[in-house]
Design a protein that fits this description.
It is built from twelve helices and ten strands. With 330 residues, the protein is α/β, with parallel strands linked by helices. Helix 2 runs antiparallel to helix 12 and helix 3 crosses helix 10. The protein is globular, with a radius of gyration of 20 Å.
Length: 330
C-alpha cells in the first residue's frame, strides 16, 4: 500500500458523508427530551489533563454546552494508552450522556493488537465526529548538518540504523509514519520510543541525544518561533497554516501522509436521533469563529467530519494499520 491511499481517506470520507449525512433540521420523535436540562454529558478522555488532546476536548465541551443548554464535562481517565477510558466508553449506557475521545491510531491499535487484550472492537463504538488533525513532521536542530528532508532520507539509506528518531511509543502515529517511510524509500532509522510523551522526547532531541524529531504540528510552535529547530517536512497533503513556508513530504517527492487524528464517539447502540442531536451541536460549535480561533491559538488544526464521514475514515484507517501493525513486532 502506498502512502497516497492513507492521505485521501479523510477527503474521501468527507465527500461520501456530504451525500449521506442525515438531516437534523427537526427533532425526531423521542429526541425532544434529550438532553434533559441540567443533566451533564460526560466526555471520557484517556489522557491526563493539560495536554493538547485534553485542551481540545475542553474547548469543544464549552461550545457544546452553549448549543445544548446543559453541562458538558471532560472526565480524565488516563492509563494504558487510552484503553481504560475506551473500555469505560464501550461499557457505558448508550443514552447520549457519555461520549468519549477516540484518538487514532491508539483506539484502532488497542483492539487490533491481541497483546492489548481489549474487551471492545470497532463495533463497540458509534463514531460521532472527527475534530482535529495534527499532522506528523520531521525536524532537526538548527545546527544539524541535515538541511533538507532528502538529506536525511538519503543518509538513512546509505547509512542504515545510524540516525536516531523519536516517537511517543511503539504504536504511535510517529512510529507508524516512520515504518511507512522506511517501506517507501528503503531508509532505515533507529526508533527511540518515549512512552511518556513529547516532553521527554523534546528534551532528548534538544539535548543532542537523538538526531531527528518525529512529532506533530502542534508540538513545535514555540521551538519553531524561537529558531531552535528546522522543520524538514510535514506529512499532509496541504501545508500547515502554522508553518506556511514548510513544504509537505508530497511536495518533496515522498507521498507520505500521517497524523494524530482526534475524534469523538458514543457507545454502540446509541439511538440515531441522539447521535444527530449531539452531532449537530458539535458541527455548530466547530464552525463558529470563536472555536476556530481558540484551536488556532493552541496550534491545533480543525478538520471536521460528521458521523458518517468519520465512520468511513475509521474503516479506512483500520485497513491501513492492519498492514503496518505486524511491522512493529519485527
Amino acid at each position: 500500500m502506498t502512502g497516497s491511499y492513507f492521505s485521501r481517506l479523510a477527503r474521501i470520507g468527507m465527500a461520501i458523508g456530504c451525500a449521506l449525512v442525515v438531516s437534523t433540521a427537526a427533532s425526531p420523535v423521542g429526541a425532544a427530551e434529550f438532553p434533559q436540562k441540567g443533566k451533564a454529558i460526560q466526555i471520557l478522555l484517556g489522557y491526563a489533563a493539560g495536554g493538547t488532546t485534553d485542551v481540545g476536548a475542553r474547548i469543544l465541551a464549552s461550545g457544546m454546552e452553549k448549543e445544548l443548554g446543559t453541562p458538558v464535562v471532560v472526565v480524565n481517565k488516563p492509563g494504558a494508552s487510552g484503553q481504560i477510558a475506551l473500555t469505560a466508553l464501550s461499557q457505558a449506557k448508550p443514552d447520549g450522556y457519555t461520549m468519549g475521545n477516540t484518538n487514532m491510531p491508539s483506539v484502532v491499535v488497542s483492539y487490533l493488537d491481541p497483546a492489548r487484550k481489549a474487551t471492545y472492537t470497532r463495533k463497540s463504538f458509534e463514531p460521532l465526529a472527527y475534530h482535529v488533525v495534527d499532522p506528523t513532521l520531521f525536524a532537526v536542530r538548527k545546527d544539524s548538518s541535515f538541511k533538507t528532508l532528502k538529506d536525511v532520507i538519503e543518509y538513512a539509506k546509505t547509512n542504515p540504523k545510524k540516525i536516531r528518531v523519536t516517537t511517543t511509543g511503539i504504536q504511535s502515529d510517529e512510529a507508524f509514519a516512520i515504518l511507512q517511510l522506511q517501506k517507501m524509500t528503503g531508509a532505515q532509522f533507529i526508533q527511540v520510543h518515549f512512552s511518556k510523551g513529547i516532553a521527554p522526547a523534546m528534551t532528548a532531541f534538544l539535548g543532542n541525544k537523538v538526531e531527528l524529531l518525529c512529532a506533530n504540528v502542534g508540538d513545535l510552535l514555540a521551538q519553531y518561533k524561537s529558531g531552535d529547530v528546522r522543520i524538514l517536512g510535514i506529512m499532509d497533503d496541504e501545508r500547515s497554516s502554522f508553518y506556511p513556508d514548510v513544504k509537505t513530504f508530497e511536495e518533496q517527492g515522498y507521498k507520505l501522509y500521517a497524523s494524530a487524528n482526534r475524534g469523538f464517539s458514543l457507545p454502540a447502540g446509541t439511538p440515531k436521533e441522539i447521535v444527530n442531536i449531539l452531532g449537530d451541536a458539535i458541527k455548530k460549535t466547530v464552525t463558529s469563529e470563536e472555536h476556530k480561533k481558540r484551536l488556532a491559538d493552541m496550534g491545533l488544526t480543525l478538520r471536521y467530519m460528521d458521523a458518517v464521514q468519520y465512520a468511513k475514515f475509521w474503516d479506512g484507517y483500520e485497513k491501513l494499520l492492519k498492514e503496518l501493525l505486524p511491522l512493529t513486532k519485527e
